[in-house]
Each structure stands twice: as C-alpha cells, then as structure tokens.
Specification:
368 residues, alpha/beta, Spore Coat Polysaccharide Biosynthesis Protein SpsA, Chain A, seven-stranded mixed sheet, 11 strands
C-alpha cells in the first residue's frame, strides 16, 4: 500500500486569493480522485479549511487537521507516518499535478512499490510532488518546513536513490497565480472536472492567445525572462516554431534567501533602474514579439516586497490594485506594445511548457 497525501492551506483572505484557493481546492480534489483510481491508499488530505474538507472527502479522501503552527510540512509528514505506520508515501501540494493522468500515477506507484529505497520528485531542487520509500527515511533527515528541498534531503541525508520524473506540463505545472489557472484550462489534457475552475479569461485570455500563436509562428521571437532552467530552454528550442530569447537569472533565489537579504540581481533590474517603467517596456519590446516575465526576480532586485494581493493584481495588469509600489510598473506592462504575461517561477517553467503543448493541439493556424 502507498499513501497519497495532499496538503492545502489558505493563501490569504483577499478576493483574488480566495479565487485562486478555489482553483487549488478543485485541483487537489481531482488529483486525489485520480490517485485513488491509480491504486493509492489511503488517500489523506491535510487541511483544517471547511470548504477544502468537503471537496476532499467527496473525492474519497480522509481529512486531518494540520498539527503545526506555523505549518511545517516535514513534521506533518513525520507525524502521519508514525501514527499510521506508513511504509510508502506520495506527498503533493494543492495546485500541483492537475494534468497527471491515472496511468502516470499508477506507474509512479508501481515504481515506488518495486523499490526498497527510492525518492521520486517532479523537481529535485524545488519539488511540489515527492514520493518515497521507506517512509521511515524521514527520521534520518533534518525535516524541512516546505516540500521544496525534501527530495534532495532524502537523497543526500537518508541515502535514498533519487529519480526526477520526466519533465512535462503534467509534472511541472503548479497553479498558484492567475495566469497558471488561465493557461491550464487551454491544455487538451485538462480533466473535464477542472474546466470550470475559476480563471481570469477577461484579463489574460487575449494575451495568452497571442503568445500561443507566436509560439507556432516562424520568424517571430519569444522573450522569456526569469528563473528558467536548462530543460525548459532545451524544450523550447526543439518544440517552438518561433525563435526564443532567454534571460535566465537568479535560479534558486528563494532557496538561498537572496530575495530577502537584498542580494538578488538581474540585468533587467539594472535596465529598469536606468530607464524607468515606460522606457523599460519600450526596450523589452525591441527584444521580442512577446514576453513571459518572472517579475519576482525584478521585484527582489528592486527590494520590493509586495504582498500576495498586490502581486496577483500586478499579474492581472490592475495598476490600481497593485498598490503604490507596483503601480507604475504594472501600468507600463499593461500598456506595452507586445503581448506579455507576468507571474512567478511557474510562469517560466510549468506554464510555459503547458502553453507550448496547448499551442500545438488544435490551436489556430500560424499567421503567415
């Protein structure tokens, strides 16, 4: 038996955060249901949120309230393992795995059950999905507060053999910003029960469509800036008709604390300081016909620390909602002469991968 454990906690109380949480709850419930079909048992959801409890129980999972305050994923997992006597476990955060099929989950479970010491993850350095055996390996590591470093710790400190799942939209997409959800529903493999999740079509739909058409059109150029990994770059080089210009900076920024200690630096940050917001997007428009921009790297360079409501408002090009710190940046991005999307790390990994896959599946013919 291999347990499947999903974690959900509220991101905040603002309208944008509540809409995103509704999407994340629906995704986690859908993934739990598919995990049950793939043979995982028991299905456990860790949350104390009433709305989430109802959705997860309807999906066939039992729910338990988190024990730690503030939330500490490692301690929560260790407590479950001890209380239930679990031998194998797959842990996932709400919002991740929306495109994972029953077959893919089944193969993951079978691989785990056929090995004595293994950790599988969607990202070795920054995981949203981690499956491992034996579960007692948690006793041999410094328990992390989040899931991001868990596969690395299980490999380096507990000695488990590590394998990273093949990269795809299914393994990389983690919905935690408005653009993530709005791109998800365009993917041909989006499960039917997720097609009705809250999205931001009015604010982002035309931008996404323009970028998807750019991807499938020769002699156009896509600019991707932020924490882009080499596998994504390699994928784009082989799977897009357009040219790709990549500005990859500050990988591992959050893990190293560079976003908080003021040491994060980006070439685009220096450009922004030199030109100001309007000039910045004028220069950016000379580098490509469309852009996906991991804006959190720029924010860190400029020592901006907006809260989630302001970040999400900026992602939606709502200059007034973005607050005084981000207002000028957001207005200039909104008025840029090329289509662009703003977001976090997922925008230049899972979302980008999802857009490329979706663009080649029933998308309108490229512009001649």
């Amino acid at each position: 038996m291999t347990a499947f454990v999903a974690f959900f906690g509220r991101a905040g109380t603002g309208d944008l955060e509540l809409r995103l949480d509704a999407a994340r709850i629906a995704i986690a419930a859908s993934v739990l249901r598919r995990a049950g079909e793939a043979g995982f048992a028991p299905l456990i959801a860790v949350t104390r949120d009433g709305e989430a409890v109802g959705a997860f129980r309807a999906a066939g999972a039992e729910t338990v309230a988190e024990r730690t305050e503030p939330f500490h994923l490692g301690e929560e997992l260790a407590a479950l393992v001890r209380a239930r006597g679990l031998q194998r476990i797959c842990a996932i955060g709400a919002g991740a795995g929306a495109l994972l099929t029953v077959d893919a989950l089944h193969l993951m479970r079978e691989e785990l059950e056929g090995d004595e010491a293994l950790v599988l993850s969607n990202n070795y350095y920054s995981a949203d999905l981690v499956a491992f055996t034996p579960a007692s390996a948690l006793d041999a590591i410094a328990l992390p507060a989040t899931d991001n470093p868990l596969p690395r710790l299980l490999h380096q400190q507990a000695g488990l053999r590590s394998r990273q799942l093949a990269r795809s939209a299914a393994t990389l997409l983690d919905v935690d910003t408005p653009a993530d959800a709005t791109v998800l529903v365009r993917h041909p493999a989006c499960p039917a029960d997720l097609l009705g999740i809250p999205t931001w079509e009015d604010e982002l739909g035309l931008r996404i469509e323009s970028l998807m058409q750019l991807i499938t059109t020769a002699e156009r150029e896509l600019l991707v800036a932020g924490r882009v990994g080499a596998p994504v770059w390699t994928y784009l080089e082989s799977q897009t008709a357009c040219r790709v210009r990549m500005l990859a900076e500050e990988r591992g920024m959050q893990a190293a604390g560079r976003d908080l200690d003021g040491s994060a630096r980006t070439a685009l940050g220096f450009l922004y300081q030199h030109t100001g917001p309007v000039g910045f997007f004028e220069r950016v428009a000379e580098l490509g016909d469309g852009m996906l921009f991991d804006s959190r790297v720029l924010f860190a360079h400029l020592a901006w620390r907006p809260g989630a409501p302001e970040r999400f408002a900026s992602d939606l090009f709502d200059a007034d909602g973005a607050g005084p710190e981000l207002r000028a940046f957001t207005a200039a991005a909104r008025d840029a002469r090329i289509p662009l999307l703003l977001g976090g790390h997922t925008l230049v990994s899972g979302v980008l991968w999802t857009m490329v896959e979706a663009a080649w599946s029933g998308h309108p013919e490229p512009v001649e």
